[in-house]
């Protein structure tokens, strides 16, 4: 019993240490956004602000078109989420339920493409977008992300848990593939589809490198790129950067706390058991 108790105690201590390490930067970001410039740059650093500078959040919107950044980020994240989810749904359905010549070759090619890092093709994509005249446009921001092999394979493993008998029965009863997808497959796979949608939205919301390459106008920048608005040759306004970073992260945290049960359900696939 003593060994078990000591082991449990050590496990809790280790978990607490890692939790503090993980959460502390986020807590400091929130508190730093409420500090004065001097407090954010002092050494050793201040942890708790002496006076809560709520005006920092007003200055964020006054100094940069942060409302526009929010709108741009929401539009691009929403479009990429909807289109990539639709494409992943159809691709995963085809790989699981349809039989066609060369299916194995297609799967091998897609799997090999999944192993190629995005950074390896980002400049090729940039040249393509530039030649098409799509720089500083919403289309240029979302076009390379309208499909995802990773999401397709995730849904493929999810759909594979559904008995093929259901699909065959639907076909015997005269249902088309389209009807099977929307009337049977989608309702049975809500957890997985919701997980893919949320992951895609978070990825689009946190996008940084690609928008940095294809936009150079304030009117088309996204939130993460807009943080540079609070830096100049004279130095960075760190208190405003921290306040802006807090505003950037806040929507994602709200989504997570609202839909955390659906995320867990989608990962463990409880709704497909039995």
UniProtKB/TrEMBL annotation:
Main location: membrane
Keyword Protease on entry: no
InterPro entries: MetI-like (IPR000515), MetI-like_sf (IPR035906)
Transmembrane residue ranges: 9-31, 69-93, 105-123, 135-154, 193-213, 240-259
Domain of life: Bacteria
Location of the ABC transmembrane type-1 domain: 70-259
UniProt record similarity statement: Belongs to the binding-protein-dependent transport system permease family.
Name of the protein: ABC superfamily ATP binding cassette transporter,permease protein
Species name: Lactobacillus helveticus CIRM-BIA 953
């Amino acid at each position: 019993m003593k060994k078990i108790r000591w082991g449990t105690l050590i496990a809790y201590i280790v978990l607490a240490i890692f939790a503090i390490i993980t959460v502390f930067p986020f807590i400091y970001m929130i508190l730093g956004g409420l500090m004065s410039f001097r407090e954010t740059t002092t050494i050793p650093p201040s942890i708790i602000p002496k006076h809560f500078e709520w005006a920092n959040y007003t200055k964020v919107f006054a100094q940069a078109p942060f409302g526009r950044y929010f709108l741009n980020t929401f539009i691009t994240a929403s479009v990429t989420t909807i289109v990539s989810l639709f494409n992943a749904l159809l691709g995963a359905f085809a790989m699981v339920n349809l039989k066609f010549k060369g299916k194995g070759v297609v799967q091998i090619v897609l799997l090999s493409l999944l192993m190629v890092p995005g950074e390896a093709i980002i400049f090729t994509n940039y040249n393509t977008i530039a030649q098409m005249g799509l720089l500083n446009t919403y289309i240029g921001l979302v076009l390379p992300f309208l499909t995802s092999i990773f999401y397709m394979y995730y849904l493929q493993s999810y759909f594979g848990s559904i008995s093929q008998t259901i699909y065959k029965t639907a076909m015997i009863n005269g249902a088309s593939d389209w009807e099977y997808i929307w009337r049977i497959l989608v309702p049975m796979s809500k957890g997985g589809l919701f997980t893919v949608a949320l992951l895609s939205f978070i990825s689009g919301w946190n996008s940084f490198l690609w928008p940095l390459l294809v936009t150079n106008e304030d009117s088309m920048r996204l939130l993460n790129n807009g943080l540079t608005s609070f830096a100049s040759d004279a130095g960075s306004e760190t208190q405003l950067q921290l306040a802006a970073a807090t505003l950037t992260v806040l929507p994602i945290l709200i989504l997570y706390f609202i839909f955390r049960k659906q995320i867990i359900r989608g990962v463990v696939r409880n709704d497909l058991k039995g």
